[in-house]
Design a protein that fits this description.
This protein is mostly helical. The protein is built from ten helices and five strands, in the order αααβββααβααβααα.
Length: 379
């Protein structure tokens, strides 16, 4: 606005100076020249017209300045209103964004806590898996693991005295466990864990690797089967069949699915491979066998006890009959007592009503006696 006013004022001043210069120049011309005089008159008129235009232009410039001032005020008010609205909207947006950011950070912290807990669980699981891998990588610790699992299953399923760990046979061999059956011949159970060969068979990438691993599996498993058959199957001392406990369901399934020839050879050698689940089932069958044997052994005792029970039942029956007789007699006596009581009650009623079944003189005397006493002055 100020720039426009300066431009307008400069224009007005320039026009005035131009008119003044023309007027001065023309006034210096000699008055003797009519044309010059005429020209001077025209210049004076033009100067007056220029002055008038300058006045009009000044008024217009002033009016324009006022309009620009008003427009500047309206623009400033509008800008202020817009700035206030933008500030309010920006403050609300910042507050909402801060609230959302706080909520998101809180949720993020909760999720991070859950992730930390899960990470801790994964770390513990990793350490446990590492420990289990260390245990299974060593043959001695792996054997102890298999034996411990077998012992836990047998201890949970059988009572004490029905089994024995590290039982010594007559040939000096000591299987991991024997189960004492009713015929006094123990059932041998020995734990074997052919993990390395089966793992190599699973991890084999080429056909040659798998073929060599399968050959190793057959050698290791057949060695275990032959050791059990030769060391622990003693005719007349142990049962005709022994159990080879494989403490891994996956290893047992791998042997049955991929090595049927080994399973058949184990059957022929009277060695049965069992997994933890099959060992539990075998223990349940042994429990039933022991219960049946105990029932057969207790048959004579049961018969004796049943005989005593029959005698007691007969004696109880006789005593019940005697009690029934006593109750019959008591019922008869109670009937007689009730009859006598009824008779007494009837007689008492007749006496009360002065009704007698006998001589009327007795009744007259009974009535007159009190009257005589009254007449004699007795009361």
């Amino acid at each position: 606005m100020e720039t426009a006013l300066l431009v307008a004022l400069g224009l007005v001043v320039g026009l005035a100076i131009s008119g003044l210069v023309i007027f001065i120049g023309r006034s210096r011309t000699p008055a003797t020249d009519p044309a010059a005089a005429q020209l001077a008159v025209e210049q004076i008129a033009a100067a007056q017209l220029a002055d008038q235009r300058i006045v009009e232009l000044s008024a217009r410039v002033q009016q324009m300045g006022e309009l620009l001032h008003q427009a500047q005020g309206r623009l400033q008010n509008s800008v202020n209103e817009r700035l206030d609205a933008v500030s309010l909207h920006l403050g609300t947006s910042v507050q909402t964004a801060t609230k959302h950011t706080t909520e998101n950070l809180q949720k993020l912290n909760e999720r991070l806590a859950v992730i930390d807990h899960a990470q801790k669980g994964l770390t513990d699981l990793t350490s446990q898996v590492t420990s289990l891998r260390d245990v299974l990588s060593n043959k001695q610790t792996r054997g102890a693991f298999g034996q411990g699992r077998m012992e836990a299953i047998i201890q949970d399923g059988l009572p004490k005295g029905a089994y024995e760990f590290q039982y010594t046979l007559r040939n000096g061999k000591r299987p991991d466990c024997v189960v004492l059956l009713p015929d006094q011949r123990p059932l041998v159970i020995d734990a074997k864990f052919p993990l390395e060969a089966v793992t190599a068979f699973r991890d084999g990438k080429t056909d040659d690797d798998r073929r060599l691993a399968a050959q190793r599996v057959r050698q290791d498993v057949m060695k275990h089967i032959n050791d059990i058959a030769e060391k622990y199957l003693c005719p007349g001392e142990t049962q005709d069949t022994a159990l080879m406990f494989v403490p891994s369901e996956s290893v047992y399934a791998e042997l049955h699915d991929g090595f049927d020839d080994i399973v058949q050879k184990a059957y022929r050698a009277q060695v049965m491979m069992v997994s933890p689940t099959l060992l539990m089932l075998a223990i349940q069958v042994i429990q039933q066998i022991q219960k049946d044997s105990q029932m057969r052994e207790a048959t004579d005792l049961i018969r004796t006890e049943v005989g005593h029970m029959m005698k007691d039942v007969k004696l109880l029956s006789e005593r019940v009959r005697k009690l029934q007789t006593h109750f019959g007699q008591a019922n008869e006596d109670l009937g007689n007592i009730l009859t006598s009581a009824n008779r007494i009650e009837k007689r008492a009623s007749k006496i009360e009503e002065l009704e007698f079944d006998g001589d009327e003189t007795l009744a007259t005397n009974v009535i007159a006696a009190p009257l005589r006493k009254v007449g004699a002055g007795e009361f």
